[in-house]
Amino acid sequence: MSTGTLLAIIIAVVVVLALAAVTVSLMRRRHHLRERFGPEYERTVEGSDSRLAAERDLRQREKRHDSLDIKPLPPVSRDRYTREWNSVQEEFVDRPQDAVHDADRLVTSLMHDRGYPTEGFDQQTKDLSVEHGRTLEHYRAAHEVESLSNRSQATTEQLRGAMVHYRALFDELLSDGGRAQPARS
Predict the structure, then answer these.
(1) Domain total of the chain
(2) Are 168 and 138 in contact (CB under 8 A)?
(3) Does 50 share its domain with 106?
(4) What residues contact 142, with CB distance under 8 A and at least 6 apart?
(5) Contact (Cβ atoms closer than 8 angstroms) between residue 135 and residue 172
């Protein structure tokens, strides 16, 4: 076998191995993103021009999230938030619209105290998506009803649903990923 033929075979094998390594790396990265973001992965891919652009966005969210100082709440703060949530739930009976606004305010305050920036709903959802992707649809649904409520267009049933949705995110934020007990009503 000539040197040229041997060199061509070696180069072809190296190229195939490099392509295989890149493919495996991309598959691992994709699997990691799917696991970490849950349903938010598919939502981001569907809303993006391409899967690669969506995955780039998700990696940027991870990078930003890693730079944040997200911390668990001390027990005293958890207890205070639990009491406040119970008050908001009680308020719903007489003033459902006010209760939904207060639930939104309370969730935002809890996010802030945990270390999440609260500079706007879109950024909040991106920051939350890294650790709370499975609960994020609850937050979006609650926020949508809260927006309707601001225009006096939400029904009592929609407001009740918003409270349930806010509660899902509230419990997850309060529990610090399951390391503390969620609020009890």
Answers:
(1) 2
(2) yes
(3) no
(4) 100, 103, 104, 107, 161, 162, 163, 165, 166, 169
(5) yes
Token couple for 88: 């908001």
Angle, alpha carbons 64-68-70 (nearest 5°): 130
Provide the token pair at 66: 């890693």
**146, part of any domain:** yes
**Residue (of 23, 139, 160) closest to 89 by Cα position:** 160
Q: How many CB atoms lie within 10 A of CB 96?
A: 20
- The pTM for the full model equals 0.78
Residue with tokens 């899967």: 51
CA 94 to each of CA 43, 91, 155: distance values in angstroms, whole numbers, following the listed order: 36, 6, 14
- Residue 183 in domain: no
Distance of CA 42 to the CA centre of its chain: 13
- 59 and 83 share a domain? no
Task: Per residue of the chain (185 residues), give pLDDT as tens.
Answer: 788 888 888 888 888 888 888 877 778 888 888 888 888 999 999 999 998 899 999 999 999 999 999 999 999 999 999 999 999 999 999 999 999 999 999 999 999 999 999 988 999 999 999 999 889 999 999 999 999 999 999 999 999 999 999 999 999 999 875 444 444 44
| DSSP H stretches of helix in 38-74 | 39-46, 51-67
Tokens of 9: 């075979």
Same domain, 34 and 87: no
Q: By three-state DSSP, how is residue 165 classified? A: helix
60/80 same-domain check = no
